[in-house]
Amino acid sequence: MTLEESIIVLSPFETNIFLEYGGNPSIVFGTNNLWKKPSSQLVQQLGSTEAEEALNKCATAIYSIPSDTNNLSVSVKKNHIIVTGVTGSTDYDPIVTSTFHVPLPVDTEFDNILNNYKDIFDEICKEFNIDIVVMKQSGIKNGLLFYLYGTATNVAKAQQQALATADLVRHHDNVILDYVDLDSISLLPYFMDPSNLHFLKSHHKTNCFVPQVLSLNTEANPQLILTSKIYSNLLRTKYLLQEKCNLMKDSLYYKKISNVPIGKIAFLKKFFGTQINQFMIENQTFIRLEKNFIEFQSSFLHLLDLSIKNFTLFFLQNVIELTIFTDKKSDLQNNILQNFRESEFLLIHSSAIEDKIFLITTYSNLLSRCKAVFDKENESIEQLKVNFEIHLDYEDFISGKKNGKLTRIIETSNSIIELSNSNDTLMTISLINETFEDFSISLKKLIDELPAEVSFFIAEVYHRPIIGTGGSIIQTIMRKNNVFIQFSNSYSLPQDKLYLERYDNVIIRCPNKNKGNIKFAKEELLKLVENFQFLQNSSKLALTSNKFNNIILNNGNLMNLIQLEKKFNVFIKFPKTFHSDRENIMQINGNDNNVINMVTNTILQDEKLWIREVSLKLSSNFKKFIEADSNLILFYNEVINPLETAFNGSFVTLDKLQSMITVSYIDDEILDEKIVKLIGSYLNNNGITVSR
Length: 692
Description:
GO molecular function: RNA binding
Strand content: 25-35%
Pfam families: KH_1
Shape: flat
InterPro entries: KH_dom, KH_dom_type_1, KH_dom_type_1_sf
Protein name: K Homology domain-containing protein
């Protein structure tokens, strides 16, 4: 047996046993891929009388329990059993469920609606090896509840297709479905952004279903699934997404961090997948975790560098690798499993190495549990060595002046501290102790000196007054809270999303021991901003749906707003989404009324930025006409979308009361000769009169 073959990796798991009792009148559809009669081996393995009773009552169940379990715990619920424990199966995939609701009218005949889609759901279940159960729900949330059952990986893979098919069910076949092929998985974080998806749904009336990044093979070319009742809307959405895709793939930047400890990468993949997913969306950067390296991909070089630094700060730095040299490996291992069973950890050992155990966990987990683990086994410990990875930018921060911080730790706790560069991005800090007493002291002191950091956005117009003359105000806040505060501007950063993005441009940093002060320093800064806003002058411009969409969709308009902020030292507050049920305002804040008026006039006079509009009044029979789905779809397909596509800067909006159409335009002649004429002709042919 080779050394690699002799390695055993123990980690906690949580899985479910889903119970099916039969005869549930709420179930209107269900597949039967994974349901099976609970085996006697399962009952024996669980070792719980309560679980045995529940399993004996159920007809079938969905379950998968590792064969090598330790420290098993069982909790019986109404329709499922939660099983937790420790396993050495590195590829074990727990059984989970994912639920979503599809609203339907009260008088819906559920069986009839589902009939057309049962074959599709069957195919999804077979392709991804899952089961789907659909239950009817009445009352306020009338509709269908979809339950997806299977391994975590398979449920994640199936989610996109299941949601898209459920959307077809919701609209009773009156929906068109199409796909957008992405050339690279690294483009997905942009399309996963909830605000981008919200804009597509509200403006283009199109749903976009995105696959979950971590469920995909990193070499795969994923697809987006689009659904819409209006074919021309779907085509425009598809064109918009393909255009965004082409722009991003032409300027992709890559960077790989090599020599990252294998155990730490495995730990992050197992326990922090959801958080890393969210990090990718927020930082517009795809992150690929491989066996011993991490790859970052982004369309913007600045965001790539920032993402690497923040990923190191918020993920890698918090994960430690502890090597324990001991002559009682078995006893210590059992003690670790007992105390860490309810937290995230990997325990690595080898039958070929008698005196060494590796523990991968977060430093907060280790701090809270190390006394309980090592106090009992103190005499058997020969040496403790812990490794941290931090970003190279923080080398001086952690070392202190002339290595003063680290020297104090070494002198007060009989420690050895070694610094080494893992690569051109990371620095490894190794802390070595001979006894647990020294280790617990030095570990706490070293963790206290690690960098803690929070970043957020404050409009650049407030930076100078917050800093104060000669830095007087900001220096006072920093000294009071024992923190360092850094300001930067974000004027040059990209505005390529379907909303105005505000990038973090203020950083508050301090040693970990003072991280509680970050909150107070941030509150002081935001209070100063609030006070300055109160003293400022402002101008408000009412945004219509057309004006909002024009600023978002027409190339360069969002960046033009940012450049106006930079040129005139103002802050333009632009809503992230358009709300049809209330007033939408773009507000310009500044210190000088004349400057605010100049900015306001600049916006109003820029016809590409602030398009002109005209309202067309409609006869009262238009409301009844447009309430018919077929007429609404034709009006979009034959009037609204052809006009908006043909005439750049033109947008057509129906008001909420359906008594008026608002048309935006740039050219007067085109408005009269083309737009108004076409709308009037179409509606007149349907018995509706139009007037200006």
